[in-house]
Write a structure and sequence with these properties.
211 residues, mainly alpha, elongated
Length: 211
Amino acid sequence: MTGTENGGTDTTGAGTRRRGRPPRTESAGTRDRILVAAREEFAERGYEKTSVRAIAKAAGVDSALVHHYFGTKDQIFEAAISVAFAPALNAPAAIADGPPDGVGERLTRFIFGVWENPTTRKPLLAIVRSAVNNEAAATVFRRLIATQLLRKIAGQLDLPDAELRAELAAAQLIGCAMLRYVIRVEPLASADLEQIVRRVAPVVQGHLTGP
């Protein structure tokens, strides 16, 4: 006889983690917990050394649940960096607030402001390092930059080659950020921010609105 036939309680499966979809009441919290764990794992280990299993373990769920919410490792990475990169994605709104002849300085100050903030710098460093070291991560990063940042900036430029102008401006700013914050080349790494803005902003302005 089983325990239930004797009037006892059937404990089959009790204390074990259920696989697959969680109850609806747990869904939102579980997804957020996985996303936080993914951001932390990618920031700490980079793209190549982070596995779906490690993300699942950090979030306290099984791997199948991570795949259920986010799909492949690339998709998890994109979701994680979209949140981490969100402050930089506000650049189009920042540059729209003011006259056209000051757009280069506004964009330069905004981007360097994001990098100067320790809270936003750490996840950005993880994103850039992952993109430099892994082609899959680089593909995700390029797609995010192109669709969420450059095209929006280009949309504000009433010029026939707006996308190229936006890309050249971004290349100038990302290149400077790489040397200052990632590779830490001196004297750029220790230079006063105002000095950098004075030299870089006119170049960015030229890319965006020059002849």
